[in-house]
Amino acid sequence: SSRCSGWSIQDVIAHLIGVNRFWALSVRSGLAGTPTRFLIGFDPVATPRLMVEPMRTLTPAAVLNDFVQSVDDLAEALDGIDATSWSRLAEAPPGHVALRALALHALWDAWVHERDILLPLGQSQVEEADELRGCLVYAAILGPTLLAAAGRARSGRLAVYADQPTVRFVVDAGATVVAREPTVDDTDVPRLSGPTVQLIEGLSSRIPLRHDLTEGDRWLVEGVAKVFDPIS
Fold this sequence. Notes:
alpha+beta, 4-stranded mixed β-sheet, two-stranded antiparallel ribbon, 6 strands
């Protein structure tokens, strides 16, 4: 079984097939200037389960073949995007965002699900520094971003100081959520610190997130847990 409650490893792969196909469609539609609007009313807990259920009749070989094809199609959709096009809007769970943000969401989601598969099998995940940095930044901004997208924006700042690899940034949360380099003015900003992998896992609700944030600041790191199923 996987780390996803009630899901086998094959179920997780089946889920990723649907996710990859959506990403590819969203990317191509965004590049064409016609962003999709398929996620209006999307239930991040119920919908993935409903999508996986009918795929349980497929053989492992068929699921693997479909997964490989979906990865190749997504890679093709992303291939050759230039610096200007990365700013085009496309649909992701937070709404219409820049393609670069969609790519980070896809990377973070895939990274987490890769661990959902490998860790129960007793296998180690290959850790790429650039992937870890991108996943941590996205995991840190996603919670406040989902609140803002739902019309419940709150204002606050969170400094993230991670190691292995070293990642330093500050999240400015509000109606718009931005991750930026720390400055001398951020000395008294609430801080989240620890090993990079553990912080990504904690912010993604896979393990308990260790922090000493006050009650009034915890919303900055609890958004994902409140929107997504803790293990899904």
